[in-house]
Amino acid sequence: MSHPVTLSDIEAARARIASHVRRTPLTRSETLSHRLGTNVYLKAEVFQKTGSFKVRGAFNKMLSVGTAVRERGVVAMSGGNHAQAVAYAARELGARALVFMPASTPRNYVDATRGYGAEVAFVDTSLEGLDAMEDYGGRGWVAVHPFDDPLVMAGQGTAGLEIIDDLPDVTDVVVSIGGGGLIGGVATAVKSRRPGVRVWGVETEGADCMAQALAAGHPVTLSAITSIARTLGAPAASTTTLALARQYLESVTVVSDAEAHSALRLLLERAKILTEPAASCTLAAAERLRDEFGPDRHVVLFLCGGNVALDDLCRLA
Predict the structure, then answer these.
(1) Which of 277, 284, 286, 265 is closest to 305 using CA atoms?
(2) CA triplet 61, 245, 142: central angle to 5 degrees?
(3) Which residue among 38, 135, 191, 247 has its CA within the 20 to 30 Å range from the CA of 2?
(4) Using CA atoms, how far apart are residues 37 and 33, in angstroms rounded to an integer?
(5) All structural domains of the chain
(6) In whole angstroms, how large is the CA radius of gyration of the chain?
(7) Where does the chain have alpha helices with state H?
(8) For 125, what's the count of Cα atoms within 13 Å in the CB-facing half-sphere?
(9) How much is the pTM?
(10) Among candidates 76, 289, 80, 91, which has minimal Cα distance to 198?
(11) What is each CA distance from 52 to 82, 213, 220, 279, 288, in whole angstroms?
């Protein structure tokens, strides 16, 4: 198959965005290692600028198109972390940003996106927002897709390079899936450098478009996103991200909201890291997959973001 993103693309992205993003820590968790009977490490993208991995792809896309093109404006659709990332990157690069957000988007995401200087326009659904984004792209604006863009995927894949560099003995990486851009980029980076490393995908019930697509053999559009893991709320995987999942993933584990919430509490209480359910679900999946791991494995849990509102956290509790 033709590869939408390659190792060389990801290495170029790392050089391109290096001065704009943080190299986030990868640390061993004694508590989780003992709990799962293996060696567990946490890739803490919760400490990335804007609180999630999304700035990696946003910067790579915007820096790739050049200043003159960016000055026409940058447009995106997101009800979560991608919105903040695009707004922040646009502000840092001196570009106007317009972000379409579903009307149901939690207030903390809206306020943060506006706080970074973007104009917010509300839409009824994510699909409506994607259509509006593509319309502006047709007018010459830079459309920054939340996942289905090779430049965005290459940017996200830079986190995979950091994992390999910081933990050469890594054997397994557990990554959550929204539309599949993050896991596609990370898996490409990791498997290109270390073909024997296993990459495990995770979704939550009610936000499981990739698991349904793999079962059906083609992208499936969800009628609604019902999971508390709102930032996994892509309505459908793309043909590109589905192909990458088929090529690189061991499996996709779908966990319940209750499991994701329990894992969130454990990470906060024991690792002192506040995650979103979209990130804590990787620990919930590792609990289910524990028979796949042993004392000689080195398992990385990718904690993709930590932008959860205090009110939501209290309500979940």
Answers:
(1) 277
(2) 15
(3) 135
(4) 6
(5) 7-53+150-316 (3.40.50.1100), 54-143 (3.40.50.1100)
(6) 18
(7) 7-17, 30-36, 54-65, 67-70, 81-92, 107-115, 126-138, 150-166, 181-193, 209-216, 239-248, 257-266, 277-288, 310-316
(8) 10
(9) 0.95
(10) 289
(11) 8, 25, 26, 10, 25
**Beta-strand pair 39-44/26-28:** antiparallel
- Dig out the tokens for 212 from the structure: 């349904």
Task: Locate 299 and state its tokens.
Answer: 């398992």
Residues 6+ apart with CB under 8 A from 115: 87
| Sole residue written with tokens 């903040």 | 84
Render each residue's pLDDT in the chain as its tens digit; 317 residues. Answer: 467 899 999 999 999 999 999 999 999 999 999 999 999 999 999 999 999 999 999 999 999 998 989 989 999 999 889 999 999 999 999 999 999 999 988 888 999 999 999 999 999 988 899 999 999 999 999 999 999 999 999 999 999 999 999 999 999 999 999 999 999 999 999 999 999 999 999 999 999 999 999 999 999 999 888 888 877 778 899 999 999 999 999 999 999 999 999 999 999 999 999 999 999 999 999 999 999 999 999 999 999 999 887 777 777 76
